[in-house]
Specification:
This protein is 68% helix and 0% strand. It is built from 15 helices and no strands. It is mainly alpha-helical and 416 residues long. The protein has one domain: Ammonium transporter AmtB like domains (Ammonium transporter fold, Orthogonal Bundle), CATH 1.10.3430.10. The model has no long low-confidence stretch (mean pLDDT 94).
Length: 416
């Protein structure tokens, strides 16, 4: 039975809008990080998720996540095409209409696979990406939404994930690593960020949207909502400064790109813990995220993994770290519906968190790698060397992000 609360409902519609804004933010963030010849190719991978993921979510995604239960792993098709959902259908929080909850969760589904695209930028055909988007949502994302938030076995076991440490960041980051190892390195070296101002714009939009991502995950307006809101900003800020300082010491210059990347690492890491810990814990999470994620990226560079935009180092490692730190620092004083972590007397909760995030990492890696192999049987996953050298904007999409001027036109026409 729906007991409509206009305050909660209005707040959740606002949060849904904020989370929606994160996907264009991600497009700008990634778009600025790549070279000039691949800007549109990476941006369309975020924007197309806004369209195609919505289609899948309506057809069967929401139903698989939040209706029925098959062995605690996945739902069923009873709510496919939103069948039977009406004006008075309640959401899990009965003060909010189901339509608002469906919309809010849909925005999470849209951005999660788009995060992965930064790892294999400049290398993957659009047709393969669309197949990947469909398969990854169906076999990785939807099962984990159900397992952690939809009444599945991890939720029943007592695993906590406030806004997506496992469900969003960890599985996306590990999928990114699997993608990089499957697809391999780029043949053509990318000269790197062509527009740091675009990255800054994207970071600002992501940070702004993240308040809806984390605070909205309480699904109502109360003191926990306020705690999650504050913790989100605190962790992002401390992580940004920590990354800036570590990079400054190692690279001898304070770089804007480091500050921006650090903020995103802090946001990703605090996500699972935002509504379960104190602001002081958020400070610790932010500092640890800034330092650990920086060195994860350094390790990736040494191992020569071509994770172009550091999706594994920021989201994979950050999500893992956040889930584990929640197991250590969770405090029922800040959320009576949460748990007490290791420091507050419950070592078994930490064990559950570690087991859950290890399980999610193995699942995401295995399914992602396997899915790419299967897709490769039907259509090439990796672009050919000529297309990569020309740039995907031109070779796949036939568009250009920037007007290159008459010199470019002469070269393009074969005159020079």
């Amino acid at each position: 039975m729906l007991h409509l609360d206009t305050g909660n409902t209005g707040f959740m519609i606002l949060c849904t809008s904020l989370v929606m804004l994160m996907t264009p933010g991600l497009a700008f963030f990634y778009g600025g990080l790549v070279g000039r010849k691949n800007v549109l190719a990476i941006m369309i991978q975020s924007f197309v998720s806004m369209g195609w993921t919505t289609v899948i979510w309506y057809l069967y995604g929401y139903s698989l996540c939040f209706s029925g239960d098959w062995h605690g792993i996945i739902g069923n098709f009873h709510l496919a095409l939103l069948r039977g959902v009406g004006l008075n259908t309640p959401s899990p929080n009965d003060t909010i209409p189901a339509f608002v909850f469906i919309s809010y969760q849909m925005m999470f589904a849209i951005i999660t696979p788009a995060l992965i695209s930064g790892a294999f930028t400049n290398r993957v055909t659009f047709k393969a990406y669309m197949l990947f988007l469909t398969g990854w949502l169906t076999f990785v994302y939807f099962p984990f939404v159900h397992m952690v938030w939809g009444g599945g076995f991890l939720q029943q076991w007592g695993v906590l994930d406030f806004a997506g440490g496992i469900v969003v960041h960890n599985i996306a980051g590990i999928a990114a690593l699997a993608s990089v190892l499957y697809v391999g390195k780029r043949h053509t070296a990318d000269r790197g960020p062509h527009s740091i101002p675009l990255v800054a714009l994207g970071t600002g939009l992501l940070w702004f949207g993240w308040y809806g991502f984390n605070a909205g995950s309480e699904m109502r307006v109360d003191s926990v909502t306020a705690t999650a809101f504050l913790n989100t900003d605190v962790a992002a800020s401390f992580a940004a400064v920590a990354w800036l300082l570590v990079a400054w010491i190692n690279e001898k210059k304070p770089k804007l790109l480091g500050l921006l990347t650090g903020a995103v690492a802090g946001l990703a890491t605090v996500t699972p813990a935002a509504g379960y810990v104190s602001p002081t814990t958020a400070v610790i999470i932010g500092i640890v995220a800034g330092v650990v994620c920086y060195y994860a990226v350094e390790m990736k560079n040494k191992l020569q993994w071509d994770d172009a935009l550091d999706v594994w180092g920021v989201h994979g490692v950050g999500g893992f770290l956040g889930i584990v730190m929640l197991g250590i620092f969770a405090n029922k004083q800040f959320n009576p519906a949460g748990a007490n972590g290791l420091l507050y007397g419950d070592p078994t909760f930490l064990l559950k968190q570690v087991v859950a995030v290890t399980f999610s990492s193995v699942w995401a890696f295995t399914f992602t790698y396997g899915m790419l192999r299967i897709i490769d049987m039907f259509t090439p996953v990796k672009v050919d060397e000529i297309s990569e050298a020309i740039g995907l904007d031109e070779s796949i999409h036939g568009e250009h992000a920037y007007e290159e001027g008459p010199e470019h036109d002469l070269v393009h026409a074969g005159i020079r």
